[in-house]
Inverse folding.
């Protein structure tokens, strides 16, 4: 029988890793995994326990991508293999991976500082330069339409609105969500124009989830990029924008715009072959996929009707950031065009 408890992990560490002295404690982080930290074998470790049904082949592919990036000089968390060389220990009782513990924290509640954005730009530029050589896919230049599907989004928004109309007992958040979704429907012709006006974009293997929670800092220095996803080619502008237009950071106003310029400059310093179009296009790319995203509003009808407070905060921040960016779109792009090359 599969068990994810701490006792089964400690026992497995003794047998599979040769660490009979392991001492762990639960971390209140992670949604798809149960996480622990502690000491074993004379080192501090991080243990990620996978839940039943997890596709372990997908997890291994993501870990291998992290190792590929690390070999190219990107700061990541180092994977510790078991005594038999496995990336993931897998038994009837438990399945987990072990990592060197990284001393660092994600950006604060108010988003990234200007120094952090500069550091992120350098790390992301190096990451993309390294992953451009990944054998899973060659770099190509593709139409920007790969960013999102406007017609599909319109259909999904209409379905959510129809479902919400049959939930008359909703709270203030549901009322707000309904107004937001109607606003986005009205915005779709403008999104179609923006998408059509974007230049072709570079597509290559990327991290896959390069968002603020997955970048750990130590004294404004990037300590590690974590939680890679399996190799998949996507538009470079999409990944740059996920961190460059982090909603909490956008809401810092002028500080965000200054930081965005520093991020772009750092990116170019580490990735001389980067196409300028990808950097300039990142803000419009973010507008397109954010406006067409139905997350987390879909969970109002497919899951619990009352979303957790952090998810509600994220939804509100993202919508407010979208309005801010739309209002300052030309100005922000001028900032990016003025970045030294």
């Amino acid at each position: 029988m599969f068990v994810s408890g701490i006792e089964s992990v400690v026992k497995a560490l003794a047998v599979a890793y040769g660490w009979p002295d392991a001492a762990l404690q639960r971390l209140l982080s992670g949604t798809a995994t149960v996480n622990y930290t502690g000491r074993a074998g004379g080192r501090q470790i991080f243990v990620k326990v996978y839940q039943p049904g997890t596709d372990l082949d997908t997890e291994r592919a993501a870990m291998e991508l992290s190792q590929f990036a690390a070999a190219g000089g990107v700061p990541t968390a180092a994977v510790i293999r078991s005594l038999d060389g496995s990336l993931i220990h897998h038994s009837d009782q438990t399945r987990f991976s072990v990592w060197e513990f990284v001393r660092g924290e994600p950006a604060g509640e108010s988003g990234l500082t200007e120094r952090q954005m500069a550091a992120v730009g350098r790390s992301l530029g190096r990451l993309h330069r390294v992953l451009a050589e990944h054998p899973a896919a060659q770099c190509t230049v593709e139409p920007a339409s790969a960013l999102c599907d406007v017609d599909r989004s319109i259909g999904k928004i209409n379905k959510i609105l129809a479902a919400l109309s049959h939930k008359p007992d909703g709270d203030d958040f549901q009322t707000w969500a309904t107004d937001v979704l109607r606003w986005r429907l009205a915005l779709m012709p403008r999104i179609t124009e923006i998408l059509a006006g974007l230049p072709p974009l570079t597509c290559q293997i990327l991290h896959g989830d390069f968002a603020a929670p997955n970048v750990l800092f130590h004294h404004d220095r990037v300590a590690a990029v974590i939680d890679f996803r399996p190799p998949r080619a996507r538009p470079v502008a999409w990944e740059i924008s996920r961190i460059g237009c982090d909603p909490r950071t956008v809401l810092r106003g002028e500080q965000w715009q200054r930081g965005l310029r520093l991020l772009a400059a750092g990116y170019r310093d580490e990735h001389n072959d980067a196409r300028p179009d990808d950097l300039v296009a990142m803000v419009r790319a973010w507008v397109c996929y954010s406006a067409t995203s139905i997350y987390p509003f879909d969970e109002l009808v497919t899951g619990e009707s009352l979303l957790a407070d952090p998810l509600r905060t994220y939804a509100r921040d993202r919508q407010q950031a979208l309005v801010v960016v739309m209002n300052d779109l030309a100005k922000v792009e001028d900032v990016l065009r003025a970045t030294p090359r």
